[in-house]
């Protein structure tokens, strides 16, 4: 079955004011890009999708993920992975610990092997026992990606995920992330300021306009 | 000419008296805290081994310890101290964690904080009186279930308070420690950078499918605990050696070790003081053991749960723990409210027959008669509080300013020493202070009491002010200095106005701490200085419930007035500044 993430008749309000309305479907392997100036409701949209909308906002509409309505589920039951602009690695755990934290409960040995294998795939061989703070920005971004993917999400949100990386690193990391989305056939929504990021998705681009001015 | 002028400038800079005082202040602070505490400890160890010039005893020996061992019920006293200290701290800690975990990142945490914050400033003695009222055989709890449920038409015989197992003490200490630990944790989580990082990581864990409470224990707690350790140890040290709560809520035969030591020390038979000193040393060892035990338990838990952090399990009976925490939180809050309501009703109760929940008549005569007796204690309470707080605030401000002048934070050693009076059981070093005072022939009880209050006020004032002072935007003082303002002018006209609100809060906190001090006032003052708190404790054992309630209410009202002023004044000032 094709996986998909669907936003049905979303209307997002700040206080009484309509911020945005959206009606979109993203299929597995596709990336929908949302662009727009700050204050246009980009991050509120992501918060609504993950179920962490602040109380000063109000929303009508539904989110559907692979045929089930997840609008009323709490964050931890939605199976939506998020990649933020900061890696947000847990500093009380090692690199391997961060990934293990995300993986489902199971056989310890198999889990460790899987972590080593995953790190190898992104060019971080043998880094499992390192402390996250000792990694470079690009390496941290890759660990954050692995952490998110190995939690087996059913959809992915990208919150300006490459904006803190320099140009060369940005291209590489972006390619890696997009390849993984293709590989796992996951629906993805990306919020960004950057036009080159948007064009690289080869997908639909929606530009939000600030409301009420 | 030019050269000479420059030399003069440099000389002048060196002679800036303010810079001088500021740079010396951390050393002064260290001396002020270390000398009395260590001196007090030494002055308790020597008499414990028989060397007591004040009693004309110079033979070194183990007489004191022998007398101590022969005290009937010594092991019960020790057990009672250890058990009440450990159990209450553990309960308060676990409940703090459950509340934080269940309500992390929700608006409920703010409400709970708002309800529990005022409890923090209630002195232990007043809290103990209120709790004693509610659990007594004729207290609120049994009135609420009588006679319809219990069938009691007359007040039943009961064991609470003063139960031989210390359950009442544990209840009192737990309810008092819970708000303290919770607010400490919330203070840590309110740090801008650190708190934001933890909240984001909690969100990441939720995105990865972790249930909220599991996410708290696996992601937040490992980062939070190291910063919470010192407050917990302070609570543990206090709980294992406090006297107010056990005096009011604890058993008499035998009491906790700390209470027994205090009785021996205050006995007319001066030779008992040798035994009391030996007891103080025992108390010190006991508290030390409890602290070590806690640290050992902490390490054991850390190692046995290390693998569990990353085993990928997302939920541990989530619904059960969530519900348990809700119920526990509601119980704690309603118990506290009930205790306060009961206290207020007793203070205005006329005739109040047993099973009725509300007094038959309300009178103000208890307040009227108490207010006559209260004049002198009230005066002492206020003046001692004001002097010790102002002194502590000034010294704290100078030390924090020295941090900025040296552009590096005070050493770890100094920060640890600031906690010293909170970590060393006060019953141990206060006796030493009394001995020293007698050696020095210091007869001004009042000044000694003020000084002893400073030891306890200073740490809290420092902790309360440090965060705001360090967060000041340095660019303002740089601008002022580049405009030619001398350091003192920058301090007085730029920094202090910016710190107006935090200074008021610290002042209110300092006053609250001073108002609540029982042991230092009693011991160092030699029983000659009466404050509201010493009177309240004395009255709690024996006098009428109604008078006792009045004193407890005054005890609660004083710090509360301070905090309300600290909260109101900045608003009034800023309002007038905006006009």
UniProtKB/TrEMBL annotation, chain A:
Transmembrane segments: none
Domain of life: Bacteria
Alphabetized UniProt keyword annotations: ATP-binding, Nucleotide-binding, Transport
This protein's record includes keyword ATP-binding: yes
Keyword Transport: yes
SMART domains for this protein: AAA (SM00382)
ABC transporter domain ranges (all copies): 1-212
Annotated GO MF terms: ATP binding
Protein name listed in UniProt: ABC transporter ATP-binding protein
Species in which this protein is naturally found: Thalassotalea profundi
Automatic annotation (TrEMBL), chain B:
Domain of life: Bacteria
Keyword Membrane in record: yes
Entry-linked InterPro entries: MetI-like, MetI-like_sf
Cross-referenced Pfam families: BPD_transp_1 (PF00528)
Organism: Thalassotalea profundi
Domain ABC transmembrane type-1: 74-294, 378-566
Spans through the membrane: 28-54, 74-103, 115-145, 165-189, 227-249, 280-305, 326-349, 378-400, 412-433, 445-467, 499-519, 549-569
Localization terms from the record: Cell membrane
Keywords for the protein's UniProt record, in alphabetical order: Cell membrane, Membrane, Transmembrane, Transmembrane helix, Transport
Lineage of source species: Bacteria, Pseudomonadati, Pseudomonadota, Gammaproteobacteria, Alteromonadales
Main location: membrane
Family: Belongs to the binding-protein-dependent transport system permease family.
Membrane topology recorded in Swiss-Prot or TrEMBL: Multi-pass membrane protein
Protein name, entry field: ABC transporter permease
PROSITE patterns: ABC_TM1
Gene3D superfamilies in UniProt: MetI-like
């Amino acid at each position: 079955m094709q996986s998909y993430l669907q936003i049905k008749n979303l209307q997002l309000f700040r206080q009484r004011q309509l911020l945005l309305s959206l009606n979109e479907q993203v299929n597995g392997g596709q990336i929908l890009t949302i662009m727009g100036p700050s204050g246009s409701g980009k991050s509120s949209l992501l918060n609504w999708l993950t179920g962490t909308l602040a109380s000063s906002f109000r929303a009508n509409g539904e989110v559907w993920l692979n045929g089930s309505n997840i609008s009323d589920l709490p964050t931890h039951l939605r199976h939506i992975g998020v990649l933020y602009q900061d890696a947000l690695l847990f500093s009380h755990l090692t690199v391997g610990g961060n990934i293990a934290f995300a993986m489902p409960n199971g056989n310890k040995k198999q889990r460790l092997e899987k972590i080593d294998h995953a790190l190898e795939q992104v060019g971080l061989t043998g880094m499992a026992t390192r402390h996250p703070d000792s990694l470079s920005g690009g390496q941290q971004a890759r660990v954050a990606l692995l952490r998110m993917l190995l939690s087996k999400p059913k959809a992915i949100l990208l919150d300006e995920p490459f904006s803190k990386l320099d140009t060369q690193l940005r291209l590489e990391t972006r390619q890696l992330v997009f390849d993984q989305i293709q590989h796992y056939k996951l629906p993805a929504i990306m919020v960004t300021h950057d036009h080159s990021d948007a064009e690289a998705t080869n997908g639909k681009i929606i530009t939000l306009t600030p409301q009420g001015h | 000419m030019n050269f000479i002028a420059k030399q003069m400038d440099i000389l002048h800079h060196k002679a800036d008296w303010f810079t001088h005082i500021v740079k010396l202040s951390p050393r002064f602070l260290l001396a002020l805290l270390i000398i009395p505490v260590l001196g007090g400890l030494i002055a308790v160890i020597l008499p414990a081994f028989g060397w007591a010039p004040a009693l004309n005893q110079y033979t070194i020996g183990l007489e004191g310890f022998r007398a101590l061992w022969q005290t009937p019920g010594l092991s019960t006293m020790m057990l009672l101290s250890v058990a009440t200290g450990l159990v209450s701290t553990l309960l308060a800690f676990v409940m703090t964690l459950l509340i934080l975990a269940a309500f992390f990142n929700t608006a409920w945490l703010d409400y709970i904080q708002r309800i529990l914050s005022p409890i923090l400033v209630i002195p232990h003695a007043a809290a103990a009186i209120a709790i004693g009222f509610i659990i007594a055989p004729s207290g609120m709890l049994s009135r609420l279930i009588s006679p319809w449920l219990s069938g009691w038409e007359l007040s039943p015989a009961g064991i609470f308070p003063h139960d031989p197992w210390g359950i009442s003490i544990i209840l009192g200490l737990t309810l008092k420690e819970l708000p303290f630990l919770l607010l400490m944790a919330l203070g840590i989580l309110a740090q801008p950078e650190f708190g934001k990082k933890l909240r984001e990581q909690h969100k990441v864990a939720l995105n990865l499918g972790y249930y909220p409470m599991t996410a708290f224990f696996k992601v937040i707690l490992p980062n939070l605990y190291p910063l919470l350790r010192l407050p917990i140890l302070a609570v543990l040290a206090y709980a294992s050696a406090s006297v107010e709560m056990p005096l009011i809520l604890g058993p008499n035969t035998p009491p906790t070790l700390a209470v027994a030591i205090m009785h021996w020390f205050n006995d007319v038979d001066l030779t008992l003081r040798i035994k009391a000193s030996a007891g103080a040393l025992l108390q010190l060892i006991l508290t030390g053991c409890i602290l070590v035990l806690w640290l050992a338990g902490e390490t054991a838990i850390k190692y046995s749960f290390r693998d569990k952090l990353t085993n990928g399990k997302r939920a541990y009976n989530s619904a059960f723990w969530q519900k348990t925490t809700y119920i526990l939180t509601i119980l704690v809050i309603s118990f506290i409210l009930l205790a306060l309501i009961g206290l207020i009703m007793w203070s205005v109760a006329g005739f109040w027959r047993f099973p009725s929940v509300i007094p038959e008549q309300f009178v103000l005569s208890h307040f009227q008669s108490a207010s006559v007796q209260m004049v002198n204690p009230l005066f002492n309470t206020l003046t001692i509080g004001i002097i010790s707080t102002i002194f502590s605030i000034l010294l704290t401000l100078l030390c924090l300013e020295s941090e900025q002048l040296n552009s590096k934070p005070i050493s770890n050693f100094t920060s640890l020493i600031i906690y010293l009076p909170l970590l060393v059981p006060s019953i141990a070093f206060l006796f030493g202070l009394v001995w020293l005072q007698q050696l020095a022939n210091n007869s001004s009880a009042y000044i000694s009491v003020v000084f002893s209050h400073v030891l306890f006020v200073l740490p809290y004032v420092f902790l309360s002010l440090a965060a705001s002072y360090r967060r000041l935007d340095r660019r303002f003082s740089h601008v002022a200095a580049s405009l030619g303002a001398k350091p003192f002018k920058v301090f007085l006209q730029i920094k202090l106005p910016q710190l107006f609100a935090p200074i008021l809060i610290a002042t209110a906190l300092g006053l609250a701490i001073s108002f609540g001090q029982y042991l230092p006032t009693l011991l160092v003052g030699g029983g000659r200085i009466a404050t509201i708190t010493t009177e309240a404790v004395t009255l709690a054992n024996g006098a009428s419930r109604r008078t006792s309630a009045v004193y407890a209410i005054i005890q609660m009202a004083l710090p509360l007035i301070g905090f309300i002023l600290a909260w109101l004044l900045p608003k009034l000032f800023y309002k007038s500044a905006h006009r």
